[in-house]
Each structure stands twice: as C-alpha cells, then as structure tokens.
Amino acid sequence: MARWENTRSTWGLPAKIFHWLSALLVLFLTAHGWWMTHMVARAGRMTQYQLHAEIGYYLLFLLALRMLWRAANPVPDMPAELPRWERTTAHAAHWVLYALMLGVSISGWMLAGTFSQPIGETLFGVIDVPQLVEGRAWHRVLEETHEVLSYVLLALVIVHIASALRHHWIRKNDVLRRMMLRD
Fold this sequence. Notes:
This protein is mainly α. It has a single domain (13-179), classed as Fumarate Reductase Cytochrome B subunit (Up-down Bundle), CATH 1.20.950. Helix content is 63%, strand content 2%. A two-stranded antiparallel sheet has the order 1-2. Helix 1 (13-38) runs antiparallel to helix 2, helix 1 (13-38) crosses helix 4 (139-171) and helix 3 (84-112) runs antiparallel to helix 4 (139-171).
C-alpha cells in the first residue's frame, strides 16, 4: 500500500496524485487549446473556450492544493550519485514548471474576461470564478501571452519526461519509479 506522507526517499500518495492529475490536465489543455483554435469552426469555439476555461480553473485549484501539500511535506532527495549541477538543474526545472503552470493558468483566467462574451464559470457548481480583467482592450496581449506560455510549458514538460526516462533507462535510478502510483 502506498504511503500517505512524503519522506526523504519517497513521494506520498497525494503528491503522486497531484503530479499525475496535473500532468494529464496540462497535456489535455495544451492539445485542446491547439485543437479549439485551429480546428474548430469559429461558430463553435465559444463552447470549447468555456470547457477549456472550466478545466483550467480546476487545474489552478489543483495547483494550489499541490503547492500547499509540497510546502507542508518534505521533498525526497535526489539520488546522491547525481552531480551537483544535475540536482540543481532538476530543482530549478521543477520550480519553473510550477511557475509556468501558474502563469498559463492565470493568464488564461485573465483572458476569460476579455472575450466579447466573457467566460464565467463556477468551481464545483458553487464558487463563482470572478473576472480578473474585463473588456477587449487586453484580449490580444493576454491571448498571445497565454499561447506562448503554454508552448514553453509544453516544451519543458517534454524535457521533464525525457529526463525521467533518462533516469529510468540510462541512469537506472529510482527517480521515475518513486513517482509511480504503484510502489
């Protein structure tokens, strides 16, 4: 059975669930964002924008929970045999991933209020999500910011996946295995 809490050598079950749900949502939202802006007929896009925004708000909520969990729990140590530069790079890359996930989510939230028909949503059907920015004046810059940050995030996610696979198949350490849901 998986441990609940993080230790210096393993991730706890909540950290693993937060990680994999975040990964799935980021990949889905990136693919969906590209699809809805490039493949969906203009007349049908608003429905897709609303779905995209709703899922994005849940990702932002999940990220808040994830950051709280991380702040309250130890982070497992990187393998001792890794050179210092690699441990430092991995640590920095994780914080950049968090910053990009937050930046993409918040820029999307800001963008939602700038459509000709602002996108209003609720979390869990009860918590109204307020508009951070209203009116069309900032639409283009927020849309471009959201798009660029999304693609930078996707690029870093690809590097993250490649690094995890490198640890598993080349370095043959437990970095990837300890993030798996099954022990």
